[in-house]
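for the recovery benchmark. tokens below, seq after
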């Protein structure tokens, strides 16, 4: 007699499918488009239901998980166009892609010698187009439109009918239309320059930017000539060549007026992304504008980036002065002779630079649950007094002195040290002292520790039997105070941004550009030991050295820490 249990299970699943698909065939509840996007976006990115409760999901057959930890964006990325990492391929999940039949291009995984190997999340060879009904089945039961079963690491989301309909409606809208500033054959860019920037620094930024744009356009002209003579381009080449334009957005006056100026520029001629940019002031107003407008801003030259764990649209080289303060905290936390009884004094000049240094140190020190630090903020006038530091050190005699001040105090360091314990360590910032870092008196250099956020070793890249390309050692004392505007801009253009633009193909969405850039391999750069990428990471140079100066007028830079301080 035939066992009826499997048949009952099949009928039950069919009934569930009918309920889910019927609901998803119906129109979404009377919600405005903006509201659907808001609610669906929160489900997709954060794993939170319209009710505010976490989405529930199941993986590996019966393991219940919190949707906040297994949200769609963690695998399918912000633009919904999928990802590739460590051999794991995650396909697109946007309506534009899902509602069309798909056939995977040939892959090395199809080779005969690969047949017996298990490939984690290997993509499907072919599938029919999805509909709203089959998409609901896929999200709820992990079954594709052709009946194929998904890998069991993909969550099966336990969604009510209305919630499922909202999520599907969001996927239909996700990455549907090209972003502003982009078209089939053109990408519009801009760069931002504030009016406090010197003509020399301005030119150091604009020259490589304009050269980059000119070269891109010249390549387009050559490519068009090839087509005229019957050349059949590959898919990669078809989308690699687009005309590019560069506008200069000049910001004038007080930072409070910058948002209005930026809005006027973007309204007049929308751009796809901001390339670089430069200012001697806090980057926050520009950063905030880019967040609100969903406008990528790629590697501006700024010492005052916004420090945030949630910001998305601006890539920075590093955290600026704050990163030097972090490095000092990390270095000190590794020293065995630092205890709860160790007296640490942080003297902060009342300036944006010193406050950023102190903020980076204090935040990192507290995160490591280290003993309290005495912090005293003084004006430049107070610091110029001959007796002020001696008085402070008598009241708070430190074993560690963090001296976040400008170069005007360097001449007084020998007298200061004479009043401190013999094993004292003084920390200063090479970024703040600039070219005057080498003016630290030679007889006390063994007591002075310097934060240094740039490369210390020569970068040599070579090809066997071919061209040997050497980047000069950039750690000479002559480079203190050098802003490296041109070299960093060239790194941004040629080693980071160009690669991202080339991998977008015809998916001209701002979020996709940032998704692609986040999946890049680490880059060895002229000014930094390493640029590291990852989803959500927005400060790509995470390291900093602690160094000391050798003897002489052009001293050697002696590392006292590794590049990335643990």
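predicted aa per position
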């Amino acid at each position: 007699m035939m066992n009826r249990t499997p048949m009952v299970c099949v009928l039950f699943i069919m009934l569930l499918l009918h309920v889910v698909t019927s609901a998803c065939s119906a129109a979404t509840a009377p919600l405005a488009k903006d509201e659907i996007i808001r609610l669906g976006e929160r489900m997709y990115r954060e794993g939170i239901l319209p009710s505010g409760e976490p989405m529930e999901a199941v993986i590996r057959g019966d393991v219940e998980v919190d949707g906040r930890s297994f949200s769609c964006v963690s695998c399918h990325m912000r633009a919904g166009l999928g990802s590739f990492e460590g051999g794991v391929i995650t396909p697109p999940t946007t309506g534009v892609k899902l509602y069309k039949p798909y056939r995977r291009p040939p892959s090395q995984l199809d080779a005969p010698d690969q047949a017996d190997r298990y490939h984690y999340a290997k993509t499907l060879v072919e599938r029919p187009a999805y509909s709203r009904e089959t998409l609901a089945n896929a999200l709820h039961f992990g079954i594709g439109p052709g009946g194929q079963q998904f890998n069991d690491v993909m969550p099966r989301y336990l969604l009510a009918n209305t919630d499922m309909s909202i999520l599907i409606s969001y996927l239909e809208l996700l990455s549907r239309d090209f972003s502003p500033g982009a078209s089939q054959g053109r990408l519009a860019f801009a760069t931002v320059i504030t009016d406090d920037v010197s003509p020399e620094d301005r030119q150091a930024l604009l020259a490589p930017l304009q050269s980059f744009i000119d070269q891109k356009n010249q390549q387009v002209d050559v490519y068009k000539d090839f087509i005229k003579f019957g050349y059949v381009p590959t898919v990669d080449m078809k989308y690699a060549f687009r005309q590019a334009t560069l506008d200069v957005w000049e910001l004038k006056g007080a930072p409070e007026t910058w948002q209005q100026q930026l809005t006027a520029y973007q309204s007049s001629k929308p751009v796809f992304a901001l390339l670089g940019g430069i200012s001697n002031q806090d980057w926050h107003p520009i950063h905030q504008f880019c967040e609100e407008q969903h406008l990528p801003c790629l590697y501006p030259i700024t010492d005052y980036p916004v420090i945030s764990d949630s910001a998305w649209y601006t890539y920075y080289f590093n955290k600026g002065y704050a990163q030097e303060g972090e490095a000092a905290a990390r270095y000190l936390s590794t020293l065995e002779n630092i205890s709860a009884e160790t007296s640490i004094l942080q003297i902060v000049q009342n300036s944006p630079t010193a406050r950023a240094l102190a903020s980076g140190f204090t935040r990192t020190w507290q995160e490591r649950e280290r003993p309290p630090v005495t912090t005293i903020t003084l004006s430049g006038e107070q610091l110029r007094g001959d007796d002020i530091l001696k008085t402070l050190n008598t009241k708070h005699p430190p074993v560690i002195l963090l001296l976040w001040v400008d170069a005007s105090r360097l001449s007084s360091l020998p007298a200061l040290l004479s009043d401190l314990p013999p094993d004292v360590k003084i920390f200063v910032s090479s970024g703040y002292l600039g070219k005057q870092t080498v003016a630290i008196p030679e007889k006390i250099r063994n007591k002075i520790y310097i934060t240094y956020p740039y490369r210390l070793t020569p970068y040599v890249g070579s090809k066997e039997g071919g061209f040997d390309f050497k980047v000069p050692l950039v750690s000479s004392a002559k480079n203190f105070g050098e802003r490296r505007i041109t070299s960093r801009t060239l790194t941004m253009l040629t080693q980071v941004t160009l690669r991202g633009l080339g991998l977008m193909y015809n998916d001209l969405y701002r979020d996709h550009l940032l998704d692609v850039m986040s999946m890049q391999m680490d880059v060895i750069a002229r000014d930094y030991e390493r640029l590291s990428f990852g989803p959500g990471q927005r400060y790509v140079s995470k390291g900093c050295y602690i160094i000391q100066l050798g003897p002489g007028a052009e001293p050697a830079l002696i590392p006292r820490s590794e590049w990335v301080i643990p």
